[in-house]
Amino acid sequence: MRVELQGEGGTSQSKDKRIHEVTLRLHETVGVEVGPDLNNMERIPFRSSAAAMDTAVPLFTGDKQIEFRDDFNTDGFVYVRQTQPLPLTLISAYPRITVNDG
User: Fold this and answer.
1) Which residue segment(s) compose the domain that 66 sits in?
2) Residue 2 lies in a domain
3) Percentage helix, strand, coil for the chain under 3-state DSSP, each rounded to 5
4) Is the pTM of this model over 0.90?
């Protein structure tokens, strides 16, 4: 679904907008990709550099704040996917949006 944002001038549906940050609320998850389309996905890191490399990455529950690389467009889609045999439970997604009202 397209992102909806109510502004001073009404709906943002037909206006140019740019999503510049997304917060994903996750539950017992590891190995997620996010992006503006399926050809431009970025993997979200779950392992810190201080973690031992000989142990599995623990499941994560909480919020992951991600810088979102997209241009201004009228759609404002956020794609989230899992391409590995690992758990993904997405509770919600909170985008930060700039709307061009001009």
Assistant:
1) 16-46+59-96
2) no
3) 0, 45, 55
4) no
